[in-house]
Amino acid sequence: MCTQGPSEGAAASIKGFTAVTVFGTAADGATSRVTMRCDADPGVALTALLACESAALLASDARAGLPKRYGFLTPAMAFGDAIIAPLKKAGVVWREELSSPVGGKAKL
Q1: Which of 25, 40, 62, 78 could form a disulfide with 73 if both were Cys (CB 3.0 to 4.6 A apart)?
Q2: pTM of the model
Q3: Helix, strand, coil % (nearest 5) of the chain?
Q4: Distance from C-alpha of 66 to C-alpha of 57, rounded to nearest angstrom
Q5: What is the pLDDT of residues 10-61, one digit of tens each?
Q6: Which of 75, 28, 67, 29 is nearest to 50 (CA)?
Q7: Which residues touch 107 (CB under 8 Å, ≥6 apart)?
Q8: What is the per-residue pLDDT across 60-74, written as a single tens digit (0 to 9) for each?
Q9: By three-state DSSP, how is residue 38 classified?
Q10: Angle at CA 80, nearest 5°, toward 62 and 38?
């Protein structure tokens, strides 16, 4: 029995959210912005969600198509785009926006 961390009841009562925005610029000047938002406490609920979805990917048939990387990896590095669909299904919201080098914008 694990005795560290909050009880299930206490963990369920923790309120919070996570919002992460990443910006990138390509060599041709095109830019991208990706925001991930989850209405869950990042220290308990989101950590558990990432661990469970990562374990499910490792145990699934999708494992054969995963990137060939080894070592201590974040879920994004370990699973690439394969982690996005399960996280979306679990309630994580993604917003992606690209802009061309001439300033036009395209929502992905």
Answers
A1: 78
A2: 0.69
A3: 40, 25, 40
A4: 9
A5: 777 778 888 999 999 988 888 999 999 998 888 888 888 989 999 998 888 8
A6: 75
A7: 96, 97, 98
A8: 887 777 778 788 888
A9: strand
A10: 100
Tokens at 43, concatenated = 């220290």
Do 53 and 91 contact (CB within 8 A), yes or no?
no
Quick count: other Cβ atoms within 10 Å of Cβ 34? 15
What type of residue sits at position 60? Answer: S
Count of beta carbons in the 10 Å neighbourhood of residue 59: 9
Residue indicated by tokens 């995963």: 66
Q: Which two tokens stand for residue 37?
A: 């938002």
Compute CA distances 46 → 2, 35, 58, whole Å.
Answer: 19, 15, 18
Q: Which residue has the tokens 């925005």?
A: 21
The single residue listed with the structure tokens 């869950």 is: 40
